[in-house]
Amino acid sequence: MRTTRSVPARPVLITALAVATAGSLLLTPGAAGADPKPVTREGSGVDDRAAQAPASATRRALTTDVPTGTTTRAYPRRLVLSPDPENPGDASLKLGLTPYHAIAPKLNALQRLGDRVSVEVTGRSAGGHRLYLVTVTAPETLRQARAQERMRELIRDAPAAAATSREIKRDYKTPVFVNSNIHGNEWEGTDASLKTVERLATAKDAKTRDLLAHSRLYFTITANPDGRIAGTRANANGFDLNRDFVTASQPETRAMRQIELGTQPAVLLDLHGYVNGTLIEPTTPPHGENYEYDLFLKNTYANALGMESAVNALGYTPAKDGVEAAQIPFRDQEEGWDDWPPIFTPQYAAFHGTVAAHTVEIPLAVNNEEYDELPVPELRRRSAVNTAVAGAAIGATLAHVREHRGTLIADQIEVFRRGAAGAAQVPVSAQTVPGVPGIGPEDVYTTRFPRAYVIPPGDARTRRSAPAAARLVDHLIANDVRVTRATRPFRLAGRTYPGGSYVVDMHQAKRGMANVLLDDGRDISGKVSVMYDISGWSLGRLWGATVERVPSGSLRGASLRAIGEAAPVARVPAHGDLRLRLTDPREIAALNSLLRQGVPVRRAADGSVVVPASARRAARTAARTHDVSFTATRQTGTAPLHRLRIAAAVTPGELFALREMDFDVTPVSTDVLNAGFDWSGTDVLFVSAGLEHADLTAPARRALESFLDGHGLVGRGATGAALNAAAGRLAVKPVEGNADANGVVKVTNAGGITRGAPDHGFVYAPLWFTDPGPGVRVEQSYAAGNPLVAGHWRPLRDGTGGPAAAAGQASVVSGDNTVLFGTEPLFRDHPKGEFPQVARALFTVAHSASVKESG
Predict the structure, then answer these.
(1) What's the whole-model pTM score?
(2) Which of 87, 360, 425, 430 is buried deepest, with most CB atoms within 10 A?
(3) Selected catalytic residue, list 188, 414, 654, 660
(4) How far apart are CA 153 and CA 164, in angstroms?
(5) ∠ Cα 310 314 317 (to 5°)
């Protein structure tokens, strides 16, 4: 039976990890092996540091992408890589590991070892570094390579036929994906992968020949070169790439996504650090409810046992090396290492047919405090141990693939067959997943898939926007979800939908991917005591498009056409002044592009903006660039708008979102202000992280107060509310909810700031406002009753801080050239339908302050 243990609340979990880390700073091997159980993933969802990412990294992420289609070629595929300049500051060097600049020469050398190794460049990172994919397989002629692609497509597109295909059973090569270094300061997976590739390139034994004859092995040598070089978890934009798979906002994530779509791996390893002993998935509850968990658990647990045996067989011990025995959370932990959100690499992969997917956390910490404080010889000893452990995990996985490739491919086919047939999920149990110990009712998570989702195209007369619908459809297609478009009006389940509506038929291979993005999700507050990361993420609720869930019905009578992209939205009337709605981030970006050119734009009473007919050419360019629609209007508008210059002490996700909307942003922080910040070029201050009024020097405090005396302030969360109080702006009482709470919430919009916003919001560490003083307006409130729709939000131990306490309370307030948010409207480039609330707030406080000052 599974080992059970009482799992304390998360603050104690963090303390336990902190104690284990502190112990590992001692220089004895035994101290490095301090038991950190119970386990949670490293890295908080709430970032309290002010982002400083360069604008060039944002531009690269917003404009750089990877090809969505590749020409089938034979193997090997030779590519001679030009060298990168030597970088003595590469953080890998201190650990005795491979610096980024040495990877290209190493890959050139590996290709020269024989005919098994191929190298491709799959894109560039936010910081501009090349991303490499290495393929190791037996040579293939062009004809053989085409046959492999044809069989891969048959598995996805016609799984019932694939299940009986003798050719697939005999000839299909099992795809395996090894992803390394997605967290930049978890280095050793890269070196283990390079060593594995080198061994496979030259090995003459029968097992290796058999493996490569029946498998394609794909290695991303470093998924995060920016972080590898800098010694940071995040990329150059400050994004944790292993939290980005819902939105794929970063070029590195899109490159990994495209590898998964193009190779369709049956098995995936994501190599991380550091948990002692080595942590090997599968996970604890709650389990993702949208994938075929019986097939996933069966294969992932079986491969985990092999990795555990291989890691322990290395012979490391707590006394001699500071290395504890490996652990498998499903078997050894009660909770704290879940697979609920699809933001992590292995969990995302499960929706594309990966039936054995693992995060592997190697044991000995060499990052953060350890990197700064431990002697170099001890760091290199640990890195050598970690590289060996990662190599053992890879080797065991390859052995498992060689022995069980038939089962792995059959189960991948079954995943897709269930989706295409609209078959019910199979709940896990001792009968359905024999051989896996400790399966109980706490492991059963299933969902009832709808018959279809319908996404109306939207128009200027609706609350929801056409740009939002188009963006959501394009995102679904990018994630390999099949979308059709109605060529004429149709009826489904007793309702008529307009022609042009998008339809997601849920009888498709990747129905789990579609549902995990579009469904509301579930309130799991009562299921487990703690969640590490986000527990709700519905793009159907948060991206600003109308998404209709159709539980049942027939699509037989609908005239539907398969599409490869959403229909263009861009439109500019031929005559008259123009109106642009501001309910979508694309519309905000279009507005800012016009203001950048000096176009005289005026605000309208309904929250939109009016562009004069004389600027029609500029409007056409903006419409095409941002795919937005202008309409004709007879409104003249009220106050003119000007381009804003924003000083922002915000999280990386918020900084990225502001730049995505084409705002002119200067990152600031406590340190930046203390160094002497020039406020003369700033119109408005936005604060949510990294600016503490009490930590400012006296001159910095006076300069800030002088600026705020005549300018607007937008604050978010506890940090923004604290600055508001210190500056004596809005007379409200901020109330902090449970800091671990997060998810999709129901809200009521009541003011100009939130006009046209979705009636759902997103929270992480939610905040609300009580006791409003004179002049304070409530722009938005949490819904009455239980506002949580999907996620995890419990009261604190004293009964406060829960959703019942927040119900009906103000979540966004305004007044006195100030707006305060208690929600997370810009979280990780995630709730895009909420972005315009922040844009409206910035324009409102900046222009109100300028009017007040000039008056």
Answers:
(1) 0.94
(2) 360
(3) 414
(4) 15
(5) 120
